[in-house]
Amino acid sequence: MGYRTNPAGLFALVVGATLVAVGVIGFFYESAFTTDEAVRGGVFGLFDVNGWHNVVHLLTGLVALAMAKSHAREFALGLGIAYLGVTIWGFIVGNGGAILSIIPVNTADNILHLLFALSGFAVYALTARRGEQAQTTRPGRPTTA
User: Fold this and answer.
1) How distant, in Å, are the alpha carbons of 9, 63, 139 from that of 101?
2) Is the pLDDT of residue 36 over 50?
3) Which of 5, 6, 25, 62 has the least CB density, counted as fewest CB within 10 Å?
4) Going by C-beta distance under 8 Å and a sequence separation of 6 or more, which residues neighbour residue 138?
């Protein structure tokens, strides 16, 4: 099943490429690896980042790209769970706070993380399990419920 017929595969590919790009771009705004919560750069004037936050984006993007072909549905669910946790944690530490005292977040970050989480859950729910689609679309065979 290719990316065109697999929503989760396309999702993982787009999310992966986007997060890798954001991780690289983030280093142009702030590249310091520090535990000082005050050190943060504003990507596009909106999203707080530092070196640690950029690395998280890069790693998440690389995982997405690695899973896009064969485990994209699982990636979508994992992203949804992880980013929902990050969203909740971000709202708890508040605007201008830092997750684990090293990853700066603000309200814009939290809203974006929530959108990633919800889209991950939606893609997971909308994508058929492996084998399910093949059984229901094979010509000459009855569909299974």
Assistant:
1) 33, 24, 56
2) yes
3) 5
4) none
Task: Pick 39 or 119 by higher pLDDT.
Answer: 119
DSSP 8-class letter at 46: T
DSSP state of 144: -
Which residues sit opposite 12 in a β-bridge? Answer: none
| Short-list 59, 66, 116, CA closest to 87 | 116
- Name the token pair of 2: 């290719």
Which amino acid is it at 32? A
Closest to 90 (Cα-Cα) out of 115, 127, 67: 115
Q: State the Cα–Cα distance between residues 19 and 28, nearest whole angstrom.
A: 15
The residue among 75, 77, 104, 71 whose CA lies nearest residue 89 is 104
